[in-house]
Amino acid sequence: MSFKDIFPFLTFILGIFFTGHIEGRKEKARIKTLKKNVLLELEDELSILERSIKVTSESIYTRMMKPNNFQHISLGKRFNPILLEKNINDVYSHFNRDTRIALKNCLLLMNQIKEKYNYVCDNWKTDNIKCRAKEESMLYSMLSLYYLLNKLKNERDRFSLPDIPNDEIVDRAAEALQVLRPLKKK
After folding, report:
1. Domains of the chain: which residue ranges?
2. Which of 114, 116, 132, 133 is the most exposed place for a label (fewest CB within 10 A)?
3. How far, in Å, CA of 5 to CA of 78, rounded?
4. Cβ-based burial of 33 (10 A; exposed 0-12, middle 13-18, buried ≥19)
5. 142 and 113 in contact (C-beta within 8 Å)?
6. How far is CA 97 from the centre of its chain?
């Protein structure tokens, strides 16, 4: 038997041996790229969120002391992390515990913000007082999200959940952005 006769068999055996290793490396590279893209998207959304917070704060101020039939609408862009929503199942287990909780909180806050945003869009012509209340609640959620995303952006792999109450988180975010602090307890 010559090498020519054994070569196809040897190639087949080596292919079987290395296929698992190569596929594992491909999957690892794919997950690394997805994680990077999700975090990059959240950074992009952070800058959009910052502007939306300022627009919402100005809208609340405009609505103050106006009658219920006052008509006003001024909303920023929606917070919409498409890659996070689409890829959370693929990357979830590849983040540390605190980051996983933060990502779930991002999605939860996104849904809360969306619900209030939709209410204002649907009712801005008829109910100024309830719209202002929804905007204040939305701003509270947006400031919580802003703080979380900013911390996630700055700490990356060293991210740990804040150990301060959410009211303090909102206070800090409002102060950093120089906007009204919504739902201030007296």
Report:
1. 3-177
2. 114
3. 65
4. exposed
5. yes
6. 16
65 CB-near residues (< 8 Å, 6+ apart) = none
Q: Cβ-count burial of 3 within 10 angstroms (0-12 exposed, 13-18 middle, 19+ buried)?
A: exposed
Residue type, 36: K
- In the block, residue with structure tokens 């150990």: 163
Residue the block writes with tokens 């975010």: 173
Q: Give the tens place of pLDDT for each residue, 105-143.
A: 999 999 999 999 999 999 999 999 999 999 999 999 999
Phi, psi angle pair for 94, to nearest 5°: -95, 0
The tokens describing 97, both together, are: 């515990």
Residue keyed to tokens 């739902």: 183
Structure tokens at 94: 């590849």
Tokens of 45: 């959304």
Going by pLDDT thresholds of 50, 70 and 90, the confidence category of residue 148 is very high
Cβ–Cβ under 8 Å, residues 177 and 146: yes
Task: Give burial (CB, 10 Å; 0-12/13-18/19+) of 83.
Answer: middle
Question: SS3 for 171?
Answer: helix
The residue whose two tokens read 């012509």 is 125
